[in-house]
Design goal:
By secondary structure, the chain is α+β, with helices and mostly antiparallel strands. The chain is built from twelve helices and 35 strands. Helix 3 (about 250-260) runs antiparallel to helix 4 (about 265-280) and helix 10 (about 500-515) packs parallel to helix 12 (about 565-575). It holds the Pfam family GDE_N_bis.
């Protein structure tokens, strides 16, 4: 999958676009080309390699023998370089000892189907083509598409959808064809991530483990490829949820990814926050202040959850942490009213109660929702105090009452040492399964001076949760299972009932390391790093939670997005967790709390952003961190 949204190209490793399945080149969710098949001298090249050369580009290499009498060695190399913007360059290279005359045919077609129809198998037939300028054109009520070729073909057959050339190649010579596909009147794809104004720093990693360099490079490239502009406010960018199924804005995922990507700078966070502030609900109803979001499957034991609730609670937390990473005061002030409306919604919805309930009547009280709400209250209070706004004390008081109640009412004692309950039913009964959503209890958020906010669990409960997350029932060896293997209904491919979700695994690694449970954090870190290697360092948002065994590989999930915003940002989070970077840009300080066990040996992170300036850090094999580059005046805090 080549991605530079709104452009997208999906191919098999054979290189030929056959029109089957998801094959094709897309623009803004519509397939503008479904078939692009090459024949040279009447034969298809034999595919020998397919390799991503960037998030938006793939290179295919094939070979063929120009005649049956040429012997077993191929004497023609066919290279195809396909880009997400709809450009493909086909190059023929001759290794023959005699001059060759090579006829080349390219068969083209499209159905102009949208991605949703293709996913459901409702694509309709290929459309008839017409000869257009130096290529072919297709048109229907759904739109139109044109392929132009350089050099122009010597022959174009609309009825067969064929373009033909004939090349004369001397020994060692080469010839190229460039195809460009796009809707009529559309210019080249202007991918936000490929612009000079990209909001993400081009960070790079190096170290004893060569996988860290590949993971961070690929994660940053994928985040760049998933960037979208707000059409009404093109200076504001945010992340699409993932390719191919979710190429639009998903508020909770966009905020979560922007938060994990804060080490790459605050501009993505600012653009995401401004975009969602414009979508925030206003008025006097019970939903006033909410950021709307779709419902999300929650697995076997709970009804679907509201991602709007999660997004509304993430908004003030992201703004507060972005300020610590260096978001300018003027932008913080601009976004503060929207954050205040989120916090007002939180206080109003809780009312005189202790817990934040589900928005639907009769819904459960979810464990992870309380974790999100508790973090939003503490970080929101910190933000309000720093900006001279009222309401911080009230939020802290409620958060304190929530901690007291939660530790008593959301903890189940058992012979294994106890565990948090996933939710409480409307009648107060616990829903006692153990799933990966419990990791949000460890994700407390960053306050001033490099301090972490207090968590909902006490020290003994946190230690027990760490032991459970690091145990074989939750740690698959490739990452954290969505549901413990000891629970009834565990399904390694279940979206929320067993599959490994990379975002939650990264949150677990970060939270466990912050709480000083480095053994458990290191196990999960090594597992997700091994999975990343198996996936070519481009992590999907989820994959099967099958047990890792000698010589095995993680099983892809058929409904996964790859690349995905939260998975790519998770790569940034797990690697920066090794250095434990905790900035306080308003105070002009940064604190380093590296993993003392240095589970990956020495690692160097370069080109990060703290306080708006490049920041580089080295962690030694002894677990000691040293700043190598930082903003002038930024002080290292002990």
């Amino acid at each position: 999958m080549c991605v530079a949204l709104p452009g997208l190209a999906i191919s098999t490793d054979q290189g030929q676009l056959t029109g089957q399945g998801l094959d094709g080149i897309y623009r803004a969710g519509r397939r503008v080309l479904s078939r692009c098949q090459i024949r040279v001298a009447g034969r298809e090249p034999l595919a020998v390699q397919a390799r991503m050369t960037g998030a938006d580009c793939v290179r295919f290499v094939g070979t063929l023998r120009s005649s049956p009498q040429a012997g077993p060695d191929p004497d023609v190399v066919v290279e195809r370089t396909r880009h997400a913007d709809g450009t493909e360059r086909i190059t023929l290279r001759s290794a023959a000892v005699r001059p060759l005359r090579l006829p080349v045919e390219v068969a083209l077609a499209t159905d102009l189907a949208d991605l949703g129809a293709i996913a459901c198998g409702n694509t309709g037939p290929e459309l008839p083509a017409s000869v257009h300028d130096s290529g072919l054109r297709w048109s229907s009520a759904r739109g139109n598409s044109t392929v132009t070729a350089d050099p122009p073909p010597t022959d174009a057959l609309a009825s067969a959808g064929l373009l033909r050339w004939e090349f004369a190649l001397s020994p060692g010579d080469s010839a190229s064809i460039e195809l460009r596909v796009r809707p009529d009147g559309a210019g080249p794809v202007r991918a936000a991530g490929r612009a000079a104004t990209s909001p993400l720093a081009p960070a790079r990693a190096a170290g004893d483990d060569p996988r860290v360099e590949a993971l961070l490079r690929t994660s940053v490239d994928d985040l760049q490829a998933l960037l979208l502009r707000d059409p009404a406010h093109p200076s504001d960018t945010h992340l699409a949820a993932g390719v191919p199924w979710r190429c639009g804005l998903a508020p909770a995922e966009a905020l979560a990814a922007a938060r994990m990507a804060l080490p790459l700078g605050t501009r993505l966070a600012a653009g995401t926050l401004r975009t969602l502030a414009r979508a925030q609900l206003r008025g006097k109803g019970t939903q006033s202040g909410m950021i709307p979001g779709p419902r999300r499957d929650a697995g076997l034991y709970l009804p679907p959850g509201c991602t709007g609730t999660e997004a509304t609670l993430l908004f003030p937390a992201l703004l507060a942490e972005a300020r610590r990473w260096g978001l300018p005061a003027s932008e913080t002030e601009e976004l503060l009213p929207a954050a205040e409306r989120c916090l007002t919604w939180l206080r109003t919805t809780v009312g005189d109660g202790t817990y934040l309930p589900d928005p639907q009547p009769g819904g459960p009280v979810r464990c992870e929702t309380q974790a999100h709400a508790h973090r939003a209250a503490l970080l929101g209070a910190d933000l309000l105090d720093a900006c001279g706004r009222p309401g911080g004390a009230e939020l802290r008081d409620w958060a304190g009452a929530l901690r007291t109640a939660f530790r008593a009412e959301f903890w189940i004692d058992d012979l294994g040492g106890g565990r948090p309950t996933a939710a409480r039913a409307p009648d107060g009964r616990p829903v006692p399964y153990l799933g990966a959503t419990a990791v949000h209890l460890l994700d407390t958020g960053l306050l001033g001076g490099g301090e972490q906010a207090p968590g909902l669990l006490d020290k003994v409960q946190t230690e027990q949760l760490a032991r459970l997350l690091g145990g074989p029932a939750m740690d698959s060896g490739w990452g954290l299972c969505g549901l413990s293997t000891k629970e009834a209904g565990h399904n390694p491919f279940g979206h929320r009932s067993g599959a490994v979700r990379v975002h939650e695994t990264a949150i677990a690694v970060s939270g466990l390391a912050t709480a000083d449970y480095e053994k458990e954090a290191s196990g999960l870190l090594r597992g997700v790093l091994a999975a990343a290697e198996a996936f070519g360092h481009r992590l999907p948002d989820m994959y099967a939670g099958e047990r890792r065994t000698e010589g095995s590989a993680p099983l892809p999930h058929p409904a996964a997005c790859r690349p995905a915003a939260t998975a790519a940002a998770a790569g940034v989070l797990v690697l920066t967790t090794l250095a434990g970077i905790r900035p306080d840009a308003p105070a002009g300080t940064v604190t380093l709390r590296p993993m003392r066990s240095a589970p990956l040996g020495e690692i160097v992170l370069r080109g990060l952003r703290v306080a708006g300036a490049p920041f580089s850090v080295r962690v030694s094999r002894l677990g000691l961190a040293m700043v190598e580059e930082a903003a002038g005046g930024l002080q290292l805090r002990a």
